[in-house]
Design brief:
The complex is a heterodimer of chains A (about 475) and B (about 475). By secondary structure, chain A is α/β, with parallel strands linked by helices. Chain A has 15 helices and 11 strands. Chain A has a single domain, classed as Amidase signature (AS) enzymes (Alpha-Beta Complex). Chain B contains 15 helices and 16 strands. The model of chain B has no long low-confidence stretch (mean pLDDT about 90). Classes of the chains: A alpha/beta (about 475), B alpha+beta (about 475).
Chain lengths: ~475, ~475
């Protein structure tokens, strides 16, 4: 990304040519990474960028072609959430992150595929069909931001935005061998992100390198008066030269290396941690005793919020409306039964149940309390270490025809990513090695609130030392 | 028939007079064409987020202070989930577990004296849109202009024991809201809405009867009639040996009956949970103190003060304090002219008559307090008579001119010129020799006859006291 920006400035490349080249690749994309391609808009953005490049205001993103997950609103460009219920929905406004990218000259190529309403880990439940992993098209790219992950991995864009509620950025980053950052809750505006679980959702960058992810993160972060949960504070720029890992304390929780972790993933992550040690970091053993409840807590909190957030898709104002209905109740029932897929319906039902009279205390309130305990675990851990390291996912990308059809097993894929969402912490997935099939393994680093600088800095330094983020299978 | 105690609790929704809606920048103006006063936030488009209008919290704190509530140092919003077309998000943002205000009272006055009615809670929430059903077409329409207009919900304790108390409570609450300037109090237009929980129990029993909830009472009269009807209905059911069924009922004002809307089984499970899109509202002492210092004197206190300070009857004090503006008008008048009862009389008769005729508030009256007291001063000084002053006042209200200039323009100053009156009086006595003789022989009551003739001769412009004195002197002299 930075290299492209330099080439633009030296007139070795032009944004319009670059954009056309990306659009051409997207048209021939065999991985189904995109739901909507905005060719006219992209060319228009690129032409504007060419003009802007002549002015001193041109920034690192001027003319850089990026892709946006299709649950982030783009004015005038269809935003479907990969759902039948929003298949024709065209927002009248830009999400704050989209506005910020546009303001900084980025070229928006189109909207990337996802699991319906970002609920899933495989990018298979999309109305637009599954996305395939560019590293092995018989496999899943992970999810739910699998379209953004595949687009970055296949070189269909310079970088992309994803959203992460329980691992939806980090998991596809891990499966696709790229870098993905889930920022601190409140550091990136959610305005315009179609809500799945409001207290967990965060938008973040997905890019070939930690440095590119940092450029994107710097562009989208910051307080937004339109999002009450966005935190007003001084957001300085990230140091793109990386950080000195000397004396950095790396906390390794035993809970992240237990049962269910694929041994090859374990080995690759261990070697990643050893690399950090070689670079001067110190490993400390830490405990996160409550994270084992993370998945259970997550599937109560996230589904409860989702059941409410998705109530607005009722066929009254926009989106799908069932035809030839008898009365109001019939319209609701048939619109929603016909508009939502199985997994979305399952989660709405779960969440509705968890909030029901007589069950609230046993489920939602209890889950909220355990959530506080998990956050407390991290607070204690970060008094002993600066960064927590572990695997992003327990396995590498699996074959689409070996798709796990048991929802519970699928939910366990998020076991290492969910705690950061519950605690609102920033977490990054960076490639740290490969399994015996040559599939990438992601290492997850977590930091205290608003310490993305540590994660991106460590990622940049790590990637200067290793080559796995550049290697294919 | 056995004796029954009535138990009523009221839930009042007050639409707030903020400039913008509670969670977006749309205006709160009503009467605009459907769906023109909306934005992505208040129509619940995908991806939008609410941002709290601080003014709504201000208004809620003000009402809380005015009713002696505890103001929560930290209050949170909650989602109330249910499906209805006029509810854009499929949930209403309201408050549930941690409301803004709790534990206050409102003092009411009925024929039985003063009573305190407890306020359980006051919380903030957003209004919904309006569904419009077309009888002819197979469609319904939804107008979201009202969606997101801020409301305060004021919940009373079930301490109201009669329809009179219920109406008194509602009137007092409405007056407080209007004194604070946070609600226009218009029940017919729905800016003040009242729901009631009603039950009856055998007199003296401590066990509550089954309650029903009443909706759709959009005037004081309807509140009174609906409650009376419902209480009678409850008693009738019990007297006939049946059980009251817990349900929600709508008042049908045209038929004068309550109609079942939904039973307990059909009642919604609102699945309340804390609104994750909003952060808790932290309310420090400084915030509260700032609002407390700006609170006006409240209706109850002002009524009491008017009685005490100006020696007014309770009735006068009640009328004069109906609105803050009227009470201010009165007090400005008294400040200018220390004749509190006279000014009160003028306001309660002539001023109120003009206001009612024109359908305007006191602030729309052409006659300032200074102009009114100017007029009253002219009467006191003997320049014009009381009956003439009423005409002058009507002209003041019509033209906005001062009493002095109207009196001068119309040349209707009282005739206080003794020479002129003397010659007129002589003519009258000469024209009525019989009456003059009878007066002089002791028929003193005939003085009125002569004074009346003199007043008539001057078209009422004679100073009545002077006319009487001159007549008496001439007849007896």
């Amino acid at each position: 990304m930075l290299e492209t920006a330099r080439q633009y400035r030296r007139n070795e490349k032009s944004p319009v040519e670059e954009t056309r080249a990306f659009l051409e690749k997207i048209r021939r994309d065999p991985f189904n990474a995109f739901i909507t391609i905005d060719e006219a808009g992209a060319i228009r953005d690129a032409q504007a960028a060419e003009e802007n490049l002549k002015s001193p205001e041109a920034g690192a993103l001027t003319g850089i072609p990026v892709a946006i997950k299709d649950n982030i609103c783009t004015r005038g460009v269809r935003t479907t959430c990969a759902s039948k219920i929003l298949s024709d929905f065209v927002p009248t406004y830009d999400a704050t992150v989209v506005k910020r990218l546009k303001d900084q000259g980025a070229v928006i190529l189109g909207k990337t595929n996802l699991d319906e309403f970002a609920m899933g880990s495989t990018t298979t439940s999309s109305l637009a069909g599954p996305t395939r992993n560019p590293l092995d098209p018989s496999r899943t790219p992970g999810g739910s931001s699998g379209g953004s992950g595949a687009a970055v991995a296949a070189g269909l864009c310079a970088g992309a935005l994803g959203s992460d509620t329980g691992g939806s950025i980090r998991m596809p980053a891990s499966f696709c061998g790229i870098t993905g950052l889930k920022p601190t809750y409140g550091s990136v505006s959610r305005y315009g992100l179609v809500a799945f679980a409001s207290s967990l959702d965060q938008i973040g960058p997905m890019a070939p390198t930690a440095r590119d992810a940092a450029v994107l993160f710097d562009a989208i972060k910051g307080h937004d008066p339109l999002d009450s949960t966005s935190v007003p504070r001084d957001y300085g720029p990230t140091d793109l030269d990386g950080i000195d890992l000397k004396d950095l304390r790396i906390g390794v929780p035993e809970e992240f290396f237990g049962e269910g972790l694929n041994p090859e993933v374990k080995a690759a992550v261990r070697s990643g941690i050893e690399t950090l040690e070689d670079m001067g970091a110190r490993v400390v053993e830490i405990g996160l005793p409550h994270v084992r409840y993370g998945v259970a807590v997550y599937y109560i909190v996230a589904t409860a919020e989702a059941s409410s957030n998705l109530a607005r898709y009722d066929g009254v104002r926009y989106g799908l409306r069932a035809r030839d209905v008898r009365e109001l109740g019939d319209m609701y029932a048939r619109t929603r039964a016909g508009g939502f897929g199985d997994e979305v319906r399952r989660r709405i039902m779960l969440g509705t149940y968890a909030l029901s009279a007589g069950y609230y205390d046993a489920y939602y309130r209890k889950a909220s309390q355990v959530r506080t305990l998990i956050a407390e675990d991290f607070r204690r851990a970060f008094s002993l270490c600066d960064i927590i390291a572990g695997p992003t996912t327990p396995v590498t990308a699996f074959r689409l025809d070996e798709m796990i059809d048991d929802p519970l097993s699928l939910y366990l894929l998020d076991i290492y990513t969910i705690p950061a969402n519950l605690a609102g912490l920033p977490a990054i997935s960076i490639p740290c090695g490969f399994d015996s099939l040559g599939l990438p393994v992601g290492m997850q680093l977590m930091a205290p609130h608003f310490r993305e600088d540590l994660l991106l800095g460590a990622g940049i330094s790590f990637q200067e030392r290793t080559a796995c983020h550049r290697e294919g299978p | 028939m056995k004796a029954y105690d009535t138990v009523i609790g009221l839930e009042v929704h007050a639409q707030l007079l903020t400039r913008t809606k509670i969670f977006c920048g749309c205006s709160t103006r009503s009467g605009l064409p459907p769906n023109t006063n909306t934005c992505p936030v208040c129509t619940g488009m995908p991806g939008v987020l609410p941002v709290l209008n601080r003014k709504v919290v201000d208004f809620g704190i003000m009402l809380g202070l005015a009713t002696g509530c505890r103001i929560a140092p930290r209050c949170i919003f909650a989602r109330k989930n249910y499906f209805y077309p006029d509810l854009p998000k499929g949930y209403q943002i309201t408050q549930y577990e941690h409301p803004l205000c709790e534990g206050g009272t409102i003092r009411i006055e009925t024929g039985q004296g003063v009573k305190r009615i407890g306020i359980t809670r006051i919380h903030m929430e957003e209004d919904a849109g309006k569904t419009i059903h077309d009888e002819k077409a197979p469609y319904s329409y939804v107008d979201y202009n009202r969606a997101g207009v801020p409301l305060l919900e004021i919940v009373s304790e079930p301490e109201i024991t009669s329809t009179d108390e219920a109406v008194a409570y509602l009137r007092e609450l409405r007056q407080i809201l209007m004194y604070l300037g946070i609600c226009d109090g218009n029940m017919e237009e729905g800016s003040l809405r009242c729901d009631a929980n009603v039950s009856v129990k055998p007199a003296g029993s401590s066990r509550y009867g089954t309650r029903t909830e009443l909706k759709n009472m959009n005037s004081f009269r309807n509140v009174q009639k609906a409650l009376e009807y419902e209480i009678e209905r409850h008693i009738g059911i019990r007297e006939s040996g049946h059980e009251v069924v817990q349900e929600t009922l709508l008042w049908d004002p045209s038929r004068g009956v309550t109609v079942s809307m939904r039973s307990k089984e059909e009642s919604h499970d609102y699945r309340y949970f804390p609104e994750p899109d909003l952060v808790p509202v932290e309310i420090g002492e400084a915030w509260i103190d700032g609002l407390r210092s700006g609170l006006p004197e409240l209706p109850f206190a002002r009524r009491k003060r008017f009685s005490g300070q100006y020696g007014l009857p309770a009735y006068d004090a009640g009328v004069l304090t109906q609105t803050k503006a009227l009470a201010d008008y009165y007090e400005e008048g008294v400040r200018l002219l220390d004749r509190p009862k006279e000014i009160s009389n003028w306001i309660m008769t002539e001023v109120m008559r003009i206001l009612n005729e024109k359908g305007i508030p006191i602030t729309g009256l052409n006659v300032s307090p200074a102009m009114l007291t100017g007029l009253i001063a002219l009467i006191g000084g003997g320049s014009i008579s009381g009956s003439m002053a009423k005409d002058v006042f009507a002209e003041m209200a019509a033209t906005g001119d001062s009493a002095e200039s109207i009196v001068e323009r119309r040349g209707i100053g009282q005739i206080s010129d003794e020479t002129e009156l003397l010659s007129l009086a002589r003519e009258i006595i000469d024209a009525h020799p019989d009456e003059a003789r009878r007066y002089r022989s002791g028929k003193a009551g005939l003085l009125g006859f002569f004074v009346g003739k003199l007043m008539k001769a001057t078209r009422g412009e004679a100073n009545p006291k002077l006319a009487s004195k001159i007549m008496k002197e001439l007849l007896e002299g």
